[in-house]
Amino acid sequence: MRCHDWLTARPIAHRGYHDMNEAIWENTLPAFARAIDNDLAIECDIRLSADGKVIVFHDDDLVRLCGRSDTIESLGAAEIETINVGTSGATIPRLEALLEATDGRVPLVIELKSGPTDPDRFAATVLAAMKNYAGSHALMSFDAGILAALKAAGATCPLGLTANGHTPEKFEAHRRAMTIGLDFVSYYYDDLPNDFVAGLRDNGVPVITWTVRNARARQITFQYADQMTFEGFDTA
């Protein structure tokens, strides 16, 4: 199956199918379980802990979600797993917990976040963690260095560029990134339409959008891209 056959087949729940952090918080196992129950693909974010474990977490620090100033990269995984996310009662999960919970039932679109971790180490660790996972999954990043490291490390799953912008300078940087040998793009919906994305689609490269939260963003997505990464509403 080509990557876009499953990548664009169903809406992608941004950081899991959370409820805008009211009761079910982003990038937690309850948000992922809700996505699975609703047959939605899952988008999530990963970082490496101080001891080299793959952790599911978006932000550069823990202030917004956990009320503390540490970073994922400064803490060991055993401590990270005890930290509550917001008021949900759920804790910050390891990637392996997400893989076990998903078990191939819905696709995973996993974004590697830039940070202090060496890209080569990050890439090798993530690929080792995913090695025995049989479910549909893709890896993506804003960071072309991370994507190049994944390609050099022998990644066999689809790799994608997370991107935004509408200037010639941005498009040139995106085109350079695509020469790594990438398979798809995740683009900010409000920078559509543009010639870069249109050219990709003309050449059969699938494009998903981020992050759709209203009817206008949804309309833009399905006029100029192939599928949406969404949050805050029911897709039914």
UniProtKB/TrEMBL annotation:
Q: Please indicate which superkingdom the organism of origin belongs to.
A: Bacteria
Q: Spell out where the chain crosses the membrane.
A: none
Q: Extract the Pfam families matched here.
A: GDPD
GP-PDE domain residues are 9-236
Name listed for the protein in its UniProt record: Glycerophosphoryl diester phosphodiesterase
The record's section on InterPro entries has: GP_PDE_dom (IPR030395), PLC-like_Pdiesterase_TIM-brl (IPR017946)
